[in-house]
Structures are given as C-alpha cells and as structure tokens.
Amino acid sequence: MSAVPERVVQVGAASRQYPVYIASHALDRLGERLREHVSTNRVAVVTDDNVGPLYAEPALATLRDARFEPRLLTVPAGEESKSLARVSALYDGLAAARIGRDVPVIALGGGVVGDLTGFAAATWQRGVPFVQCPTTLEADVDSSVGGKTGVNHASGKNMIGAFYQPLFVLIDTDTLRTLSGRDFKAGLAESVKHAVIRDPEFFLFHEHFLNLILTHDPEAMGQLIERNVQIKAAVVAQDERETTGMRALLNFGHTIGHAIEAAMAKQGDSWRHGECVAAGMAAACEMSVVSGRLDRAIADRIVSLLERIGLPTQAPLARARTELMQYINADKKAAGGNLRFVLAEAIGRARLYDDIQPAWIEAALRRVCV
Ligand SMILES: NC(=O)c1ccc[n+]([C@@H]2O[C@H](COP(=O)([O-])OP(=O)(O)OC[C@H]3O[C@@H](n4cnc5c(N)ncnc54)[C@H](O)[C@@H]3O)[C@@H](O)[C@H]2O)c1
Ligand SMILES: [Zn+2]
Questions:
Q1: Residue from 24, 49, 50, 169 whose mutation best tests the ligand 1 pocket (most atoms within 8 A of CB)
Q2: Cα torsion through 29, 38, 129, 54, rounded to 10
Q3: How far, in Å, is the centroid of ligand 1 from the Cα of 52?
Q4: With b meaning 16 or more CB within 10 Å and e meaning fewer, what string describes 274-305?
Q5: From the CB of 82, is ligand 1 less than 6 Å away?
Q6: Which long-range contacts link 205-210 to residues 24+ away (Cβ below 8 Å)?
C-alpha cells in the first residue's frame, strides 16, 4: 500500500480545540505527538484482546522512544466490555499503574475501547488527559471524534457517559488492513449517514467510488475518513452537548438502529453497531417517505447504496416488532416524553422532528423487520 499524505482536521468544540491526524503509519508517531502535549513519564494504554496482539507493541515502542513508561491494560473485545463492571476493573488497573491527575490514558482500538476508555479517563481523578487511537473504520469516521464517551446499562445503550474531548486523535489508516470485511462495511454505515444528513457530494463520492472504497484504495480511504471527520467536527463545533438539535442529526437511523441492536442481541445474533444503523437508516428513510418529507425514489437510492456496500437494510425481527416499539417508547421517556426522530428531506439534508406519529414507526418496522 502506498503512503497516504497526512491529513489534519481541527475540531473546534466549545470545551476544547484539538487536532485529528489521519495518515498511513500514524501510530509510529504516537510518542512524539504525545510529547507535544504532556511532560509526565507514565502513560496508560487501553486496548482489547484482538487489537492488543496486533498493535500494542508498536504503540508502546513509540511511547518508550519518547521517554514514556507505558502500562498496557487489556479488556475483552466486544460490546459487553462497555459496562460499569469493566469501568470498575479499569479503575483498578489505573490505580495499580499509579495513574495520577496529569497522566494520559490512550484508547487503542475500536468504538468499544474508545467509549469505555474515554469514560474511564473522564471520571478517573475527575478527568485525566485522554487520547484516541482508533483502529476500526467505525471509530475513524465517527466514535473517536466529538467527545461522546460512555458505557451501556440494562435499560439501554450508552445510558451512562460523559462528554469528554481528547487531547488529539491519531488515525492510522493502515490498521484497517487487519479489520474484518464485516467490520469495515459496518463502519461505512456511519459514513453514509454523514453524507445523507449533510453532504450530497459526499453521497455521490460513495456511489461513484464504491469499488475503490471496498478495496481499501489508500487515496479514496484518506479522502473518505477526512470528509467524515470534517462533517463530524463541523456539527460538534456548533453543538458539542446536543442542546440545539444540530448534533442530534448524527442520530439519524439510530433510534430504530439501537432497538434492532438490542433485539438482535437478545435473539443471540449480535449484529455490529453499523449494521443495525444501516437497517435503522432504512427504517428512518421509510418514515421520511410515509410522513411526506422524502421522495420514494431518493429513499430507494439511499437503501440501494447501503445494499451495494453489503449492509443489511432488513432484520429478521418480524416477531419482535412489539418489543421494538416498547424499546423506542423507552427512548421517548428518556427524551422527556416526546417521540423525536431525525428524518431525511433530501440527500444531504435532515431535520429533527417531534410530530412523529406511531403509525409512521409501525410502517417502518413492517418494512424493515421481516
Ligand atoms: N462515541 C461515539 O460518538 C460513538 C459513535 C459511533 C459508535 N459508537 C460506539 O462504537 C461501538 C462500535 O465500535 P466498533 O464498530 O469499532 O466496534 P468494536 O470496538 O467492537 O470493534 C469491532 C471488532 O473489531 C476488532 N478490531 C478493532 N480494530 C481492529 C483492527 N485494526 N484489526 C482487527 N480487528 C480489529 C475489535 O476487537 C472488535 O472485535 C459501539 O459501542 C457504538 O455504540 C460510539
Ligand atoms: Zn452510530
């Protein structure tokens, strides 16, 4: 693979400004980058047991080269690690490694490691410096940027968390080479989401260059990741804490997507987050059509792109529709009694609506849960 030029995107969140570095071999410069920010010797690196054997040693080596004494903490791979029990175990590890107030904690892994480690970093000693080194496409294009950290609770996904921005994000595009095809495609769901809510040209980019994207062409991937980070950064700059409705647009496909995620897990067939979001976006498109806000032909175009990628736009949940409805209503309670959904109005334009009729959701569930 030829080297991709380094791309840097600045995130201007209200609570912190920070750079996102995107490059081939970016991990080689982790120690050097961190030295620009901190003067301590100690540092903790949190990873999972899939990513650790692949990337922990090179990451630790660059930290040692920059005169750090790194301590590695490894959690089991998988969504189940996004739990308070795992946070508690991480605190034990941080205490044993004597990670004090000024000592940075680095998340090396996918969205699970990033969300979990970010939350631990936000709360340990009321907040220690935090760095994101994402290794999945999902984390590159979405979860590592914007400062949402947290874990799941029995009552729902991401119920416990904090907004906590990193010092910087380091995206090594080479790490995608070892990612499974299934996880790679799951990450593309969030990329399509960004295009649908904000950027018609970026949607065309997916349609035109899909073959290059699916074969990991370095230039196409560099552009794709950079554009995603720019879109996310622009949204977060305007609405870091999801108070004005702007950041809520990023939840396109997620209300039904999270319900599908919970129902599939209950059925014993855990789907990737991005897969659930793909089916959730198909459902949101259907709601957009039946509520008269989106042309059927445009909805079909979005669904067809997801299908060309190889993402599911339907889920085997025909018998779980009532349960999904209950899950969505629980989400409503969390949102203060109003059923709110992000609907698409065109490719590149979405809006948060609170006039949602249950019949629209039922129509979407009939189409998507088969
Ligand atoms: N904080 C946010 O803003 C935000 C946004 C989107 C998603 N998320 C969260 O992100 C999580 C999903 O993230 P994910 O899809 O990255 O899942 P993940 O972290 O579980 O990673 C997927 C799988 O790939 C493995 N893996 C990671 N990097 C690898 C690599 N380079 N090579 C080989 N294997 C590798 C992992 O061990 C895991 O088995 C969900 O919990 C979701 O809620 C958070
Ligand atoms: Zn998501």
A1: 50
A2: 30
A3: 14
A4: bbbbbbbbbbbbbbbbbbebbeeebbeebbeb
A5: yes
A6: 206/305, 207/305, 210/305, 210/308, 210/309
pLDDT-derived band at 283, boundaries 50, 70, 90: very high
Q: Ligand 1: which of 138, 158, 241 to mutate, judged by most atoms within 8 Å of the beta carbon?
A: 138
Q: Is 234 exposed, middle or buried (0-12, 13-18, 19+ CB in 10 A)?
A: middle
Contact by Cβ (8 Å): 31, 12: no
Model confidence pTM above 0.90: yes
CB of 27 shorter than 6 A to ligand 1: no
What residues contact residue 136 under an 8 Å CB cut-off, 6+ apart?
109, 110, 111, 176, 179, 183, 187
Distances (CA, A) of 360 to 56, 146, 348, 349: 47, 31, 22, 20
**Tokens for 21?**
């570095």
DSSP 8-state code for residue 314? S
Find the mean pLDDT for residues 154-179. Answer: 96
Mapping DSSP to helix (H, G, I), strand (E, B) and coil, where does residue 246 land? coil
Give me the amino acid identity at 175.
T
